Amino acid sequence: MAVFTPLTDPQVAEFLSRFDAGSLVSVEGVPAGTENSTFFVTTDRRELVLTLFEQGEHEELPFFVDLLDYLDEHRLPVPGPLHDRDGVALHTLAEKPALLFPRLPGKHPKAPNLAQCRELGDALGRMHAVSRHFPGHRPNPRDLHWLLPMHHKVLVYLSPEDQALMKDEVETYQGFFGDAPDLPQGALHGDLFRDNTLFDGDRLGGLIDFYNGCTGDLLFDLAIVINDWATEPDGRLDAARHDALISAYQTRRPLTAAERDAWPMMLRLTALRYWLSRLLVVYVDPPAHDLTPHDPDQFRTVLKARLAHGALPLPEGDE
């Protein structure tokens, strides 16, 4: 159960009284999630999601509020946080930072079909087109600058073969991205796996959980998506899902020549990013709560497949 801080009905009712959102009918803890306490809240007027932030850098929460407000104002399918009668979104509840969101329709797609891939590609392309003008700034916490020091922490736990693989990859990324031209920048989701989307049938209900949101290379975001949404269990890319997603993306934001050149390397870098972050959770910095960590080997498999088979040809787009 991922409710680390239980709440009582009177606590939630008092919290709701600050907002123009109706009166409490029921509150239910949500078992999904690994970092924060989440509750479904029903009022006499609407369905809401209440999140208590259990860990992480709380001083960065205003960035996430500003980003979600910005994307919501641009009509992206995101849960724009509710603001109270004084215009304030971020509050404290049970001594934890708290945000209230509208509950978006749908559920996580376990095996996305082509229509769902096109929907996601279109939404991500729209998001990146407008996020280039987002005025906020939060450096990407999981880019190459993070990989360089952090990969040393897990080498002792790896086989000699995997040690060599990880060290060689990081050195390769340093050489490639150190000399590569600057890539288009903007605000990123930073973790847009299937379980951070909601679909009502083939219709995208929303992009959720922006708590890895940051600013940086837009291509980083797209590579994370492809490595999850268009990848088979053996790590190989599925051409139909890959093309459906990227073609839809490019109708909203065509990739530049520099991005096309960097694409195979970015797929590898983001695969290693998750292999490393999952290894760190298993061996170095286990979660504060009794939760089963994700399997690091999944992204070792993805990385080895990218090395063995390369990237698929990118669909054409109009620059």
UniProtKB/TrEMBL annotation:
Pfam annotation, one family: APH
Protein name: Homoserine kinase
Catalytic class of the enzyme: transferase
GO BP: threonine biosynthetic process
Record domain Aminoglycoside phosphotransferase: where: 27-255
Record family assignment: Belongs to the pseudomonas-type ThrB family.
Domain of life: Bacteria
E.C. number: 2.7.1.39
InterPro entries on file: Aminoglycoside_PTrfase, Homoserine_kinase_II, Kinase-like_dom_sf, Pseudomonas-type_ThrB
Keywords tagged on the record: Amino-acid biosynthesis, ATP-binding, Kinase, Nucleotide-binding, Threonine biosynthesis, Transferase
The protein's annotated pathway: Amino-acid biosynthesis; L-threonine biosynthesis; L-threonine from L-aspartate: step 4/5
Signal peptide range: none
Catalytic activity: L-homoserine + ATP = O-phospho-L-homoserine + ADP + H(+)
GO molecular function: ATP binding; homoserine kinase activity
